[in-house]
Amino acid sequence: STAVKPIREALRLPAGSQVTVRGWVYRRRDLGDKAFVVVRDSTGIIQAVFTPESPGHALARKVTVESSVIVGGALREDPRAPGGKEIAGRNIEIVGLAENFPIRRDASREFLLEVRHLAVRSRKMTAVLKLRSTVFEALHEWFRSNGFYEVHCPMFISAAVEGGATLFPVKYVDGSTVYLTQSSQFYLEALIYSLEKVYTVAPSFRAEKSRTRRHLTEFWHAEAEVAWTGLEGILKVEEELVSHIVRRVLEKNREELELLGRNLEPLKNVEPPFPRISYDKAIEILQGKGLNVKWGDDLGADEERALTEEFDKPFFLYGFPVGVKAFYHKNDPSRPEVTLSADLLAPEGYGEIIGGGERIEKLEELLDKIKQFGLNPSDYEWYLDLRRYGTVPHAGFGLGMDRLVTWIAGLDHIVDSIPFPRTVTRTYP
Ligand code: ATP
Ligand code: MG
Ligand code: MG
Ligand code: MG
User: Fold this and answer.
1) Are 81 and 47 in contact (CB under 8 A)?
2) Which atom of ligand 1 sits closest to the CA of residue 301?
3) pLDDT digits (tens, 9 = 90+) for 69-119
4) What CATH number is associated with residue 254?
5) Which of 327, 351, 379, 412 could be bridged to 373 by S-S, CB 3.0 to 4.6 A?
6) Which residues have a beta carbon within 5 Å of ligand 3, which is an ion?
7) How many Cβ atoms from other residues are within 10 Å of residue 165's Cβ?
8) pTM of the entire structure?
9) 304 C-alpha vs ligand 3 centroid, how far in Å?
10) Structural domain that includes position 66
């Protein structure tokens, strides 16, 4: 028999070639005395047709959907078949006969999440996962070709970064209580003193209590920290990184984007510079749209969605009030009621995908702000040390990888951006 070929490659061979493919039965039906078996592998799908004369005919009739199979035969043109060619089936080997597959076409979203270990085989999920893989690849590619070092930070931590309300406590080996990390930022800040430009990609954990379309309890967080720079410098990093990632997806995942029904026009528009809007202006616009917000409020998904109507590409929202951003953000010296911070919002209704800004580098300023926020400086001893030994101006950001994938793939819920989502109501499978 011939060597096994990926389906995508098999479809490129000339009609008449003998081919062997392997994969899983995607569809199965009989038409008259012919048995049709559509086989799927990671590269595509192909149809094999077995006539009663073919040695594999009886097995082809018996095989069930999602069984694993090896199929051989001669390739022939068929304009009606997916890919324009099909296999005149000769033999079929059933490697694992599948029981009655529980997923039907009309399955509910909740049921699909309950059987996620099987639902990840769908063509939609496969397309999303390929795109997601490109997003991670492109992120590493960009950082590594721009002088950043990849570093790795702990997941067990002893104090909050983003605030106590979303901390996950864990009983540690010595009986004490520790927490799962919400952000690697403080560790990245420590590492700029040796490496200057650092990044990491790791899970962050947040006990988000409300159900939304954009919050997971465990999400993939890409974070970067850069010494000797400020807000301007870090925004440039963000816009170049994001546009590089989108460009790569457009190059590598056309088929997947098409299968997902993604409109490509907004993605083609993701080139720097990204427009900017101040928080002050945003509040004005939102009030003009009749939303109930006032200066000093944090903005949520609804407000962000309304702002995205003003832009046809990602945009920065800068100058958040001191009260809505964490204590480590530096206040604007020319206007101390606002921080030198900015969020990057994705267009088309998606909203925040990055939060970032300049960090406080002076010890006294940091101590004042910790107290002003009602926090205890002794919980931040090692973080304060970073300002005691050779402090430098620096800035950084956190990018939600799952949110980035959700937007690029044009999905309507973050759970569809990751194979095994963890949410307020789900930790299985
Ligand atoms: P939000 O306002 O949506 O709750 P945040 O401002 O609390 O987000 P940051 O602390 O700024 O989030 O975290 C940096 C980035 O991490 C966010 O811009 C977002 O892309 C991502 N992120 C934060 N929380 C979650 C979550 N629960 N699930 C998925 N991604 C998240
Ligand atoms: Mg949050
Ligand atoms: Mg936010
Ligand atoms: Mg944020």
Assistant:
1) yes
2) 3
3) 999 999 999 998 878 999 999 999 999 999 999 999 999 999 999 999 999
4) 3.30.930.10
5) 327
6) 352
7) 10
8) 0.97
9) 10
10) 7-96
